[in-house]
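User: Second chain of the day. Same drill as before.
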Amino acid sequence: MRAVIQRVSEASVTIEGLKKSGIQQGLMILVGIEDNDSDEDISWLSSKIVQMRIFDDENGVMNHSVKDVNGDILLVSQFTLHASTKKGNRPSYLKASKPPVAIPLYEKMIQQLSADLGKEIFTGSFGADMKVALVNDGPVTIIIDTKSRE
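Assistant: Same format as last time:
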């Protein structure tokens, strides 16, 4: 799994002109899924996200997690995170999982994040043409790939 994590002061997803979900302070996460991702990847990534200390404490030092600040999470599936740009000018998405594999893993990720955070996770709609808006706070943007954790 590959995730782009952004600390936000607000973020939302709109589909066909209707706002599906939105958050204020928290994390906007784009997640890409590949066929060899597992429950272990989900568990590790979720724990890492919820415990990552990227929110400021009273001294302006990044010492608090999204859980510590009672922030929200907006999770959006994005297969383009697994784009290969090695050949030519058209990215290849062969590493990205197809819906029969990706959807169940995405749903497990939602459940795991919700359990780890202790509250509802906001989402986009898998496979939809979404308009994602956000105000990156900091800016703070972190990329995590579960295959690069060693």
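The helical segments are 39-51, 99-117.

User: Great, on to the next one.
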